[in-house]
Amino acid sequence: MNQLSTRGSTLAGRYLQAIGVANGDPIAALGYVEQQQHRWTDYSQVKAAVDALSLGQTGTHLTASVGDSFLELVRPRALLWKLPHLRVVPFATDAILQTAGASSYWVGEGGLKPMSAPAFQRLGKLARRKVVGLAVVSNELLRSSRADAIVADDLAAACAAGIDAALFDGLAGDDDRPASVTHGALTVPATAAPLADALAALALFKGNLTTSAWFAHPQTAARIGAKNPGAGQACDVGATGGRLLGIEVFTSEAVPKTAVSLVDLSRIEVAGGRDAELRTSANATLLMTDPDTGTAKPTSMFQTNCIGLLGEIIVNWRVGGPAGSAVSITGASY
């Protein structure tokens, strides 16, 4: 575990551990933290955050630092924060996207200077949306010496998976979640020749290739590379990414195995991703899904001697620009 993720797991995880062990009572949580004075190297930071919570100061930089440390665990896991060329915008602010720029001309002596009119598209406002990770742990686990790292890492992985799933599953958005960056993309039916399919997608693509990237499932990317050994930069791709037709390839388990998409990243606007909140509950009743049957049933945290943990991140995105800013190869079974 690198230094960045270690800091996140201790501060965010120990904050969760303290308020979880105390069943959400900030005064009892403060007492628990006091007992760890000689065990926790970041004792003073955890104490300050729990102390601020006990005083109802949830908006202070003290509790915000806990959210920041949690985000330090989420960002390396979520592909969203690894992508270049994204446009960062504020929430609830009208945005305008330039779809056609000004033109320049060569003009002879005494000649008329032509005029050009840039074209713009009004995108409207990005609303505040949130992705929520939920986990349930036993009281015994929460009191274990490694609970701080376990619970923080688990919640971070859940939030990152939720973000990437919405980013690449191809679905339309709704009141709860943003649309996938591949929703509404032009499509190319896959054949048995992935390199030829990529060239067909490129022929339909209307975005800026210098700010674009391919997205594929790791297995799909590995199979594309295996089908084109020795192709050089034209197809130097594997499970961890690479380049296809000289364009960078990003891989994620969230991308459907049957789709390979080319997206102009400069057309993606992202808001938020800078605020996170952590909460616990020992009295909630949660709908928990049975992994064997797939059915959900109400489960009482109190009756099962468990604690519910919640990590919440405020984030939203959208894709602007003309049709053809995203093209997907569909039905890829390479």
From TrEMBL:
SUPFAM superfamilies: Major capsid protein gp5. Residues 98-260 form the Phage capsid-like C-terminal domain. It holds the Pfam family Phage_capsid. Its main location: virion. It is found in: Virion. This is Phage major capsid protein. It comes from Melaminivora suipulveris.
